[in-house]
Amino acid sequence: MNEMLQDFEQYLKNKYYSQNTVKTYLANFKKFLVDMHIINVEQLNNEIFFAYRADLQNKKLKGQTINTKFEAIRSFLKFLYNSKNIVAPACEVKQARLRIRLPEIKIRIYDRFYKKELSINEIKRVLRTINKDPNKFYRLRNTILIQLLASTGLRISEALQINIDAAITGRVEVVGKRNKIRTVLIPATVVKVCREFRKHRKELYLKNQKLFIDLQDNVIKSQTCGKMLKKYGVSAKVKLQKLFLHNLRHFYTIDCINQGMDLNTIAQNLGIEDMEVLKIYQSRNLKHLQEQTNKKGRRLLV
Known about the structure:
two-stranded antiparallel sheet, hpI Integrase, Chain A, about 5% strand, DNA polymerase, domain 1
């Protein structure tokens, strides 16, 4: 199994999974092997998988967490078939296609962040708080970060790739999930602040070409950006549960849907392939509309 695990890791890397995804899949699959005492491929049957799901449910793990663990197992079973020509007992081949039977937990994904979305007013409050920062460097850099993520839907990992000279052109290329490259357009309002930021950086003799750096001329980390959002957000009296960077991506998506933008265009801008994700946002919007309709109906009660 150890040799197979090494090959499995390389298989995931060849599929262009991110480093974090590869690490998570390997850790989850190794934990499965240990917990269920798996020593050979012949043990990978439906009985063991259902027993594993029951064990995870008894540990009170969330449905999303359980499904993530089974995604790692699913990837290993695909690896066995595609790289080793091995069909595990839980699988079957029909018309040259591998069919995998794994248990899963049905969950309503949109409930996870429902009513935790940032509003335009809350983002503006955060930006006003940033504008009160006495340090010009931090004031400009952090303004750019919040405006960029909220107006483009970029992931923080993608935003940290950007060079300042490229940002000033208003058009950048970023590498997203599965190493896929896409072009992102930056609003003129953000470009204007980038120009001012570049000028100020030259005054401070900072030479790093990345857009998001610190005063020591080093690229900042995503954790630093997250702490920054929480710091200014709390000062702006925004609920702490809303203050995570990915929520700016949610804001962008919901805003685009509310404006009637085509789902295919939104998916292209976000760099995602699964249209079901966007339908989740639509479901949230419909749920909100239903609540508003119910309120109007209650006003007519006599």
